[in-house]
Write a structure and sequence with these properties.
By secondary structure, the chain is an alpha+beta fold. The protein is 33% helix and 22% strand. The strands form 2 sheets. A 3-stranded antiparallel sheet has the order 4-3-5. Strands 1-2 form a two-stranded antiparallel ribbon. The longest helix has 15 residues. It starts with 8 loop residues before the first strand and ends with a helix.
Length: 91
């Protein structure tokens, strides 16, 4: 039996498309209940994935998609902080 060597895929919470995990940003809720853009290799806390695209970021943060994915009520200022951090990464 031959094992598949495919890269793990995750679903973007903005556009709902499946992509390789390495191509997505991961937002995580750490144990201190703060949102953070997770650095590659660091997998602390519950996470959600977003495409590195401004439209996906807007869709994910506009409604409660991120809150549902993280199972956590997110304050408006925390959403703005994480949005700015992601948009800075896109530049």
């Amino acid at each position: 039996m031959e094992m598949s060597s495919r890269a793990p895929e995750r679903t973007c919470i903005g556009c709902r498309s499946r992509r390789p995990q390495a191509c997505l940003y991961r937002i995580s809720k750490h144990f201190d209940n703060r949102l953070r853009l997770t650095i590659e290799g660091e997998r602390v806390g519950r996470g959600a994935y977003i495409c590195p695209d401004a439209e996906c970021v807007e869709k994910a943060l506009k409604g409660d998609r991120l809150a549902r994915a993280l199972r956590f009520k997110i304050a408006a200022d925390a959403k703005q902080e994480i949005e700015q951090e992601i948009l800075c990464q896109l530049r």
